[in-house]
Predict the 3D structure of the following.
Amino acid sequence: MNKNNKIFAVIIGGLIIVIVALIVYGGKNKTGAPAAVKAPAVDMHGRPLAANISTASLQDLVNKPAPDFTLADRDGKQYSLSELRGKNIILFFNEGLMCYPACWNQIAALAGDGHFKDGDTVVLSVVVDSPEEWQKAVKKMPELAKATVVFDEGAVVSKKFGVLTTASSMHYGSLPGHTFAIIDKEGLIRHVFDDPNMSIHNDQLVAEITKLSESRAGTQ
């Protein structure tokens, strides 16, 4: 091996040693232990990862008085917690216009479910769009016209219920995602559920309403 080749070999060998050292020791802190790796808060699309978001704040609402609210539908009819006293209330907080087709399908499914047409339960699909914007959805999916959609201007009510910071929110902190809250006839929250998969949950909601009815009948 000539002199130039020896120098080149030494340089390559040195680089290999440096790279190995970085791999072995770069992931350790000053104590020699592997450095903590923070899990990403969002996925590649900017959507929060469910594993990093606690649902504790939602569960803290259960068996407590529901936050007061007044929401209006596209015709201006108002629905308030106080006026709905004596009825079970299902609130479906969702992203609305931008959440096609998942949220739209759930809204339509709630509107067409006979289990909620006995007058004992009121189902409100809460969106943050304006009534004018929501008409675009109705034109694209006419069955949405049968739903009771109410408009949460500025996401004020959504914020009260803590549904802007759930795993299902695709616009974390700004818009709700796919969250349900059931309020009983006395105005207490009895069930909350957030679904990052954005599925249809009519059966689950029917089961929870049935539990409320059975519990009430048992105390009378």
